[in-house]
Amino acid sequence: EILMTQSPATLSVSLGESATLSCRASLSVSTSLAWYQQKPGQAPRLLIFDASTRATGVAARFSGSGSGTEFTLTIRSLQSEDFAVYYCQQYHYWPLTFGGGTKVGIK
Amino acid sequence: QVHLEQSGAEVKKPGASVKVSCKAVGYTFNDYYLQWVRQAPGQGLEWMGWINPNTGSTNYAQRFQGRVSMTTDTSITTAYMELSRMTHDDTAMYFCARGLLGSNGWYYFDFWGQGTLVTVSS
Questions:
Q1: pLDDT (tens digit, 9 = 90+) per residue, B87-117?
Q2: A interface mutation test: which of B27, B32, B45, B112 has the most A CBs within 10 A?
Q3: Is A49 on the interface with B (CB under 8 A)?
């Protein structure tokens, strides 16, 4: 099973600043990597797939990069609605696995 | 408009089974694998398995093998996930999600149900 490790576990950011979230895979997953945003009491929402492709309707301030074992989600100019927990998920190998999440909070 | 509507919250005793439903609307049901993911309180996401509505074939995460059963009723575009012999550790929010095949791998999830809270309590 591929272990996905996200860092940091929590991140405090001021409105308008940028946030950089990391996700590391225990084995290369090529670009088979998705990012999700989850707000309290809601289902996750797909942001990025294939490591760098924004899902339909996702704001351009969200961008994904990386391949192999190292991936990054960057959120530019954070808005109030961006404070949430973010999960990465690899889908290169079965079973599909998620990272433990990064909680982005207001500084 | 793609929408996945799940059944309501359940409370079960240890050792019991639960069956959660997921009604899909707004797309061709048979064209997409349906996935199940769970989330224990305050915890992360855990993939449980998938079902191909077209053929009924399934693929379960090893830790749920023998305890989980995923089925579909294509006539009403509904998927079901049944988990048996539950323990307190199965207390979680259970989500269904539509799977999209990545360009270089298996499935990520583009649309999610609202979740069904299953509580196992004696």
A1: 999 999 999 999 998 887 889 999 999 999 9
A2: B45
A3: yes
- Identify the three-state secondary structure at position B5: strand
Distance from CA of B115 to the nearest CA of A (A): 7
**Helix residue spans in chain B (DSSP H):** none
CB contact under 8 A, A91 and B102: yes
Distance of CA A45 to the CA centre of its chain: 11
Average per-residue pLDDT for chain B:
96
- Please check whether residue A81 is in contact with residue A58, taking contact to mean a CB–CB distance below 8 angstroms: no
pLDDT for residue B25: 97
Binned at pLDDT 50, 70 and 90, residue A4 comes out as very high
CA distance A92 to chain B (A): 4
pLDDT for position B95: 98
Test mutation, A5, A91, A98, chain B, max B CBs within 10 A? A91
**Interface touch B95/A43, C-beta < 8 Å:** yes
Please indicate whether, in this complex, the C-beta atoms of A31 and B104 are within 8 angstroms of each other: yes
Model confidence pLDDT, tens digit, residues B29-52: 999 999 999 999 999 999 999 999
SS3 content of chain A, % helix, strand, coil (to 5): 5, 50, 50
